Amino acid sequence: MTQQQRLNALLELVSERGNVSIAEIGEALGISAATARRDLSTLAGQRLVTRTHGGAAALGSGYELPLQYKIARQAEAKVAIARATAALIQVSDTVGVNGGTTTSEVARELGRSERFVRGEGEDGVTIVTNALNIAYELSVRPHVKIVVTGGVSRRQSYELVGPMVTTSLAEMALDVAVLGVDGLTARFGATTVHEGEADVSRQFASVAKKVVVVADSTKLGRSTFARIAPLAAVDVLVTDVAVDAELRRDLEAAGVEVVVATV
Known about the structure:
By secondary structure, this protein is α/β, with parallel strands linked by helices.
């Protein structure tokens, strides 16, 4: 396990449990007490955890892991979801993509797919995004036209938020909006942890002909702070597992098509 992998796993452990001791970290991650202390000091120095006597505590129950520490989570599932989602996109479509690890994988799949490669000077797909990392990564793809919204950047997610995003999206018409979420339930629909990002995702959905939510199994049946849209506003859910019977009934009642990607 590399140091970055250990830090990912350790930060996730602290986030899930709230408080952990050095002994618990050693048992869960299979590392020595000295290594656990060094890794905790690294995370505390980055203000990602709070050191306690004999361990560490999460910064708060609503704390959001920064994007770079989410990349390794559910990696295979996200790649499979990305492939299945890219198959729903047609050549020459204009696609809105919000920020997040799953949507970043979708953008990568669109960027490397031979299906969208056209003649010189022709755009195979147009991607409109508020995510700086997605725009940067795809800017080298000659067949991808990148449009970046305005807004103020959030360090945790590299997403642009605020009224400038709304202003720019109001002037656009999208074929598809691909939205990453932090939770999806029948009662609250699609949700995320930050109200500014929820508003941007809602704006993407409002100017799109089709709304595709991409969510791995950890997001299903879970609700978070800020509501994006009810289930009725979603056209397609792409996930990595068979949805449980109760949620599937609710999705069918709302007219949501479910696509289960093969991992």
